[in-house]
Design goal:
The protein is built from 1 helix and no strands. The protein is mainly alpha-helical.
Length: 102
């Protein structure tokens, strides 16, 4: 009978060890899942920050491009206006010289 109790106790201990190991495996799986989710969240956040930074950089570049285009147009307009004034002044000079020789 003592052998029966010893065997029963040994089986009970073995079952508890098996349950404990199963619980450890389940906890490890759960912890691994949580770790993966945390890494995924961190990676997603990093990617979102990169996208936001890229959009901000693109907007800055677009604004710079528009500003340069505006400056270029203004410069061309000023040069054109000056050329027109010079052309009228030259035409007026030529007309006066022509009128002298008439």
């Amino acid at each position: 009978m003592a052998a029966y109790y010893a065997l029963n106790t040994q089986v009970s201990i073995s079952l508890q060890e098996i349950k404990h190991l199963k619980d450890k495996v389940q906890n490890a799986k759960s912890n691994t899942s949580v770790d993966v989710q945390i890494q995924l969240a961190e990676t997603s956040q990093e990617l979102l920050l990169e996208v936001i930074a890229s959009r901000a950089k693109m907007e800055e570049m677009r604004q710079n491009s528009l500003e340069r285009e505006r400056e270029t147009r203004e410069k061309v307009k000023e040069e054109y206006d000056q050329l027109i004034l010079n052309m009228f002044a030259s035409s007026f000079d030529i007309m006066q010289k022509f009128d002298k020789y008439r």
